[in-house]
Amino acid sequence: MKKIVIAPDSFKESLSALEVAEAVKQGFLAVFPDAEYTLVPMADGGEGTVEALVAVTDGTIVRTQVTGPLGNQVEAHYGLLGDGKTAVIEMASASGLHHVALEERNPCIATSRGTGELIRHALDAGVRHIIVGLGGSATNDAGMGMLASLGARFTDEQGKVIADGGAALIDLKHIDLSELHPAMADCTFEVACDVDNPLLGDRGATAIFGPQKGATAEQKVTLENALTHLADVIVASGFTDQREKKGAGAAGGMGFGMMTFMQASFRPGIDIVVEATKLKEAVKGADLVITGEGRIDSQTIFGKTPIGVAKTAKIYDIPVIGIAGSISDDVAVVCDHGIDAVFSIMPRVMTLKEAFAGAEKNVTFTAKNIATLLAMQSAK
């Protein structure tokens, strides 16, 4: 083995993508000490995307206080990549469910203002390319809170600014974008999104994602009516009707808001990360590519990191090994999508707490065993 590329996702609640990569490297070093190792921490647009892209581009994490989903101040962050011109924002950092206690979840009043404040902070810092990862939101306001914090005014029949939250959208009458942050016009927005839900209907933002945000059956009706009214007002105001577009329902309809008012382009998260990390260039000439995530199963083939890495490696016909915290009975399907072999790091039956605590050691041990097997094979 002369060149080995290690490109895993994080093992959620246990190890970051970089920590997984380092643990794999340590295991392989014990067997192949003279190999060239290239570590490319990965993500698929969800949790860990900021850290992965910051790590691989020598960027920085920017932390600031913003408005949380229920109006209180929370600490959030975004990544400023090494080029100094690109920011990566995970919506959940500012407007995520983890900021709201289970008993307090209420998408009727939750706001996405904090996400807009992160965008404003980045724009003020001179950023003109912003990648936004959607997912994990506590909100159902179609991104109107985000836009309000960027200077948009949403007012009722009397010209009064409407309240925050998804339910208040029913009061919307007028949209004024004259005070939008001036840098918005020069900024390119990309959205990392792996869902194709429209804004409304049985597969829409409210029906599919509302319950996990605390929406009751009655509130779901209220929110659906409010989003329908919003879409109607937007069309009446001369904007393109985006309600049926794939991804419009993502993150409580924030996809819809970003399509409509920010001309955002939508791409699978893994595609954005593969491009930003220059993974294609990294794997060229490699003898082996190792990837992984906390769990590899049949769902992994739908836009998850291991398959994105595998497809990139297969451009050059490079073998790919997947390492996971756990694997499923249906995991074999990933072998039809570029992963040649899959290994679980679990040495025995154990509790989740034990698995998290021993993850680094178990990744290293598994990697060493894989490397040993490869060395034995090559010695024949």
Short description:
35% of the residues lie in helices and 18% in strands.
Can you tell me the CATH superfamily of the largest domain?
Answer: Glycerate kinase, domain 2
Q: What's the CATH first level of the largest domain?
A: Alpha Beta
Apparent shape: elongated
| Count, helices | 13
H/E element string?
EHEHEEEHHEHEEEHHHEHHEHEEHH
Structural class: alpha/beta
Largest sheet: 6 strands, mixed
Per the CATH scheme, the topology name of the largest domain is: Glycerate kinase, domain 2
Q: Uncertain regions: pLDDT < 50 for 5+ in a row?
A: none
Task: Please give the alpha-carbon distance between the first and last residues.
Answer: 14 Å
Question: What is the CATH-assigned architecture of the largest domain?
Answer: Alpha-Beta Complex
Q: Determine the strand fraction and express it as a percent band.
A: 15-25%
When the domains are counted, the total is 2
Question: Helix content range of the residues, please?
Answer: 25-40%
On the 0 to 100 scale, the average pLDDT is 94
Strands in their spatial order, largest beta sheet: 3-4-5-6-9-10
Tally the beta strands.
13
Which value, in Å, is the CA radius of gyration? 22 Å
